[in-house]
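User: Round two. Same drill as before: sequence, then structure, for each protein.

Assistant: Same drill it is. First protein:
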Amino acid sequence: QVQLVESGGGSVQPGGSLRLSCAFSGFTLDDYAIGWFRQVPGKEREGVSCIESSDGSTHYSDSVKGRFTISSDNAKNTLYLQTNSLKPEDTAVYYCNARSGLLYYWGQGTQVTVSS
């Protein structure tokens, strides 16, 4: 059974940093791509960053490129998203996602609020 549990969200001032974590179980990164999405009320969920299962390559949306870093610790079955230089427009619920073909799995989300 695939499970994803996010943590690490919170409230920070603009320019601050947070490290989001996603503890996962029920699959391996050899078979599933894994990544982060975010969503604000009234808007569609958008992809932020991911690690491909095929070659381990990483991808970032243009809005976070150069500020966010995705990584995984396979020994701990944990995915991370280091978020730096946070902006108010980064405020959202951040979701961990695992996908394999047409199968998508989601965590419950963690709130990130960037405000002065």
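Second protein:
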Amino acid sequence: EVQLQASGGGLVQAGDSLRLSCAASRFRFRDYNGDWFRQAPGKERELVARITRSGGTQYSDSVKGRFTISRDNAKNTMYLQMNSLQPEDTAVYYCYTRYLISPYWGQGTLVTVSS
């Protein structure tokens, strides 16, 4: 069964860093785009970062310069390095890909940033 397993969330203080991981199973992640979304309480889910099959990256304006998306192809895993975290980054973070024609979401990992 194709799966994405997200991990790495936690409670941190403003200015701290966290790294989220998204481990893929049953398919070769490097052959597909990978996204990180987040959903804050009372808000819609938003795309924060994307890594393409060719390794290109895109970021939302709210995280540009602070977050870095990457992959380790040997581990079949995607990462989101989050630096200079702020309270407004508090959200559940989800990894996502579209494998063939089907969407797959990780289970979500909670990031809480205290001021």
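The two ends are 40 Å apart (CA to CA).

User: Perfect.
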